[in-house]
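Recap from last week: sequence in, structure out.
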Amino acid sequence: MTAATASATSTAPAASARFGAGRTVRLGLARAGYEVRSYFRQGDTVFFTFLFPLLMLTIFSVAFSAIDLGRLPDGEKLTAAQYYLPAMLAAGALLSGLQNMATDIAMEKSDGTLKRLAGSPLSPVSYFIGKIGQVLVTAVLQAALLIAAAGIAFGVPLPTDADAWVTFAWVFLLGVTTCAILGIGLSALPRSGKSATAVIIPIVLVLQFISGVYLQFSMLPEWLQNVANVFPLAWLAHGMRAVFLPEGYAALEPGGEWNLAGVAIVCGIWLVAGLVLTRVTFRWIRKDG
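Predicted structure tokens:
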């Protein structure tokens, strides 16, 4: 018995190392590949989260092509496609991150998927790596599709300097990650998988309408702008406008300038809040179920 105990004790560190951080990341990356494949096999999910921003960009660009959405301080006309490209990039991050994560995880809790995963070698960290990896992959593909369509089909002038694309990269990655983490936290809100869309989609729609996605942010009442600025979507849309709209458009923004520091601060606060919310609320199995 003593020899067996000593042998088990001596192999414990090796087993711990074998099932440590490296294995957690490998399982997470493998899970991400599975999640991406599953995502693109669901036609309704692909349409309402992946292709929906492209559809809305096309509709708005065509429907409002003859409408003067306002002029820049130098007199240059702002086209519908030019305005709605950054808006749809922000909306895409919200749909791919918050809406997709919240509804998907709520359904996995309801149908027993998470209960089965709880008995597998997959840790919650690996599970989250897989989910966030899927969001990053689909969001990047979606953004590339939107930018290509705007530039080729609608003639939207794209940034030509590297600094603008660096700004786009960090705003986009911060926004998508924040939305994904918040989506994981909000997945605890629906009482069942069937009610997930009924609970989450109204939240997403309201945020889009008050955050300058479907309506010009500068046209909203000041009090509504202040409410929207509490949430990350308005700042994400602001950051995207800073990248894709002419410098002169900043005069029409609240404060009359691009506030990229505000984008980083507000999204960073919500990212931390989402991590705390996820840590507190996430369970493989619902306590009441």
